[in-house]
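Box S1 | Example of a co-folding query
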Amino acid sequence: MGKTEIKKFENKIWLASPTMHGVEMEYVQKAYDTNWMSTVGENINEVERIAAQSAEVKHAVALSCCTAALHLCVKSAGERLYGKPAVSHGALEGKRVFCSDMTFDATLNPVVYEGGIPVFIDTEAECWNMDPAALEKAFELYPDVKLVVCAELYGFPGRIDIIKEICEKHGALLIEDAAEAMGATLHGKQCGSFGDYSAISYNGNKIITGSAGGCLLTNDIEVANKARKWSTQARENAPWYQHEEVGYNYRMSNVVAGVIRGQYLYLKEHIAQKKAIYDRYCEGLKDLPVQMNPIVDDTEPNYWLSAMIIDKDYMCKQVRDDTNALYVSEKGKTCPTEILETLALYNAEGRPIWKPMHMQPMYRMHEFITRSGSARAKTNAYISGGASDVGADIFERGLCLPSDNKMTAEQQDIIIEIIKSCFE
Ligand SMILES: *Cc1c(COP(=O)(O)O)cnc(C)c1O
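Box S1 (continued) | Returned holo structure for pyridoxal-5'-phosphate
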């Protein structure tokens, strides 16, 4: 099938959009009918119970979003490590924190909210997540670092077990950003249960959604209680508004919690749909010079986003600056920009891989640590990666494919044909 025979999709094929089932509305309606329309109510209590049970941790704290959860993780960890800061200071003031590099910036922005300095750890080519060897290197260079923030990419767990061991060896705490990995497991253990503090997300495009929302996960009841207090403006137990520390307005709404409560009933079904999409891409693209997201031994991903990387020898010339991308079309070769533009032409949505943090203008002065040592983060255009900059290389050659769980097999077959046509 050539490009010319493929018709544009009438309805857009999304990267990942909310999938509702009806029962969500019943819980929302109940909140409405009983007038629990604020940040207190049965839906919130139930979300906390279900989230903790589902992630196999003792406590979940329901919050307005995962970024808020990560902020409270960072703040808790900071106070535990370095003591309570002065009111106008962050809990990590001037402290280095080792962070995932190839991720959404919400993973580590909260480190900066608390005055910390992110140091970026390169990605492992075999698992597309934080490279344990680079993390070891980082501890060699900075043995005093006491906090690591590690994200699980696209719902495919990396070596969070090894990352945890390395943290323990060096007396460091681990924050696990499982925003994308809800329901995924490693050695049969749920993502979100590895960190000393973890966070999950119910953002609109995640595996289940409340339109927004997130949870902080922990086994420590004091951390959970503290996070609940901070999230509701840090009121002290007094008849009036009494305050001893800075607070936030981070609590989840009982209406949003109603949606999430309903969605949890479909988490397994969504994972099965996402797996079917991933398997169909593997089969449909198997004759092309590409590789899909790697699956680490003894992990069960949630398959949130199917992504692929183009073999080096089949990349046409592609140049990206801070805001634009250009490529030169070449027979038998392609690049993420060409595939994404072609998908868009047919009304289907893909996305580049998360642009690594060390390549972001905001973090250009921060350190970036690879297996072979330390480097300054890069400023501008992509500088040819190779073994010493795995993240830049995956960003250069990789892309996320339409992974919406309402996409039909027929529609996905057309997407596969469109991708194939880019190699012609
Ligand atoms: C979505 C996401 C977040 C943020 O989640 P919100 O609920 O939107 O705040 C954080 N980290 C990662 C890796 C994400 O994908």
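The pocket of pyridoxal-5'-phosphate is lined by residues 65-67, 103-104, 106-107, 151, 177, 179-180, 201, 203, 214 (CB under 6 Å). Confidence is low (pLDDT under 50) at residues 378-387.
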